[in-house]
């Protein structure tokens, strides 16, 4: 009996290892530097990294694999002090030009003492321009906080720590685009964007404050790796497809409404200068 159980356990572990991928032990296990490797420094034995922005360059990294559905999270400590004009981004991208899928966290730096703004955006089937912005209710440069993207067949949820700040539901049945077909890689960058990042570009980057530093740790990717078993993404037994993850819980919904009521500063759904008629996803339910 012990031999049979051991064999079954070994088979289960082997299946999981080729279908669903989990947390790496170090940065380089699942990620690669995409540009300016001299500006990305491994610390804590590779369990954390430091991103550097100065006048010579920003930097970026990406996952070695792409994933189709799952959950991605990282703990990030953002640029402290006067960070105006800087953007720290954490996102998923299909790396396709014409028909791009993308899920964005963009942290827009600000002057010392002003709140950090987080912009989220969603591209589905090549269509983006779905920006929402909130001001964080804490100092994200003082310590690490967890930023998470949950993506399943039912909805996409952006979390800050355990608080959902954005939900985009799958309304393909109503003809509304939703990313279901293209795998996406995981990316992050630290770069200068003072033409738009802070107060629409009014606040410029102060290079006397350089270098600007952001820190990452606890990289967590749990999803269907591509290439991999073709049936993984459709497997309703994957934990992120479970009943508990198909809609916000009552507690999550209260937190979500609190963020929307108290910290949201821009929503494309209510911007009548851009959209005299609200986009269909804005009237299809949260």
General description of the model:
The chain contains three helices and 15 strands. It is mostly beta strands. A hairpin with an 8-residue loop joins strand 8 (117-123) and strand 9. The chain has a single domain (27-282), classed as Jelly Rolls (Sandwich). The termini are far apart. It has a 15-stranded antiparallel sheet that branches.
Question: So, CATH architecture?
Answer: Sandwich
First-residue to last-residue Cα separation = 51 Å
Structural class, from secondary structure content? mainly beta
CA gyration radius, whole angstroms: 20 Å
Count every helix, treating DSSP H or I runs of 4 or more residues as helices.
3
Shape: globular
Helix content: 10-25%
Number of strands: 15
The poorly predicted ranges are 1-18
Whole-number mean pLDDT: 91
Q: How many domains in all? A: 1
What is the string of helix and strand elements? HEHEEEEEEEEEEEEEHE
Report the portion of residues in β strands: 35-45%
Please summarize the sheet with the most strands. Answer: 15 strands, antiparallel
Main CATH class:
Mainly Beta
CATH fold annotation: Jelly Rolls
Keywords: Apoplast, Cell wall, Cell wall biogenesis/degradation, Disulfide bond, Glycoprotein, Glycosidase, Hydrolase, Secreted, Signal, Transferase
Pfam families: Glyco_hydro_16, XET_C
GO molecular function: hydrolase activity, hydrolyzing O-glycosyl compounds; xyloglucan:xyloglucosyl transferase activity
Subcellular location: Secreted, Cell wall; Secreted, Extracellular space, Apoplast
């Amino acid at each position: 009996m012990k031999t049979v159980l051991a064999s079954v356990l070994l088979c289960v572990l082997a299946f999981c290892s080729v279908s669903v991928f989990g947390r790496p032990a170090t940065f380089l296990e699942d990620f690669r530097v995409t540009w300016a490797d001299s500006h990305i420094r491994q610390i804590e034995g590779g369990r954390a990294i430091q991103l550097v922005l100065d006048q010579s360059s920003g930097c970026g990294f990406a996952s070695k694999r792409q994933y189709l559905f799952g959950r991605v999270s990282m703990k990030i400590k953002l640029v402290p002090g006067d960070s105006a004009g800087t953007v720290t981004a954490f996102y998923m991208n299909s790396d396709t030009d014409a028909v791009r899928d993308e899920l964005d966290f963009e942290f827009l730096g600000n002057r010392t003492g002003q709140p950090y703004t987080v912009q989220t955006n969603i591209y589905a089937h090549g269509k983006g321009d779905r920006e929402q912005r909130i001001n964080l209710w804490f100092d994200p440069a003082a310590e690490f906080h967890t930023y998470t993207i949950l993506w399943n067949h039912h909805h996409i949820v952006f979390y800050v720590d355990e608080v959902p700040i954005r939900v985009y539901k799958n309304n393909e049945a109503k003809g509304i685009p939703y990313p279901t077909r293209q795998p996406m890689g995981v990316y992050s960058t630290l770069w200068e964007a003072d033409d738009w990042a802070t107060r629409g570009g009014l606040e410029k980057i102060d290079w006397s404050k350089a270098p600007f530093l952001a820190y990452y740790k606890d990289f967590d990717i749990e999803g269907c790796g591509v290439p991999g078993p073709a049936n993984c993404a459709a497997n309703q037994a994957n934990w992120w497809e479970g009943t508990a993850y198909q809609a916000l819980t009552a507690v999550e919904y209260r937190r979500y409404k609190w963020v929307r009521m108290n910290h949201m500063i821009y929503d494309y759904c209510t911007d009548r200068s851009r959209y005299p008629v609200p986009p269909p996803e804005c009237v299809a339910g949260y």
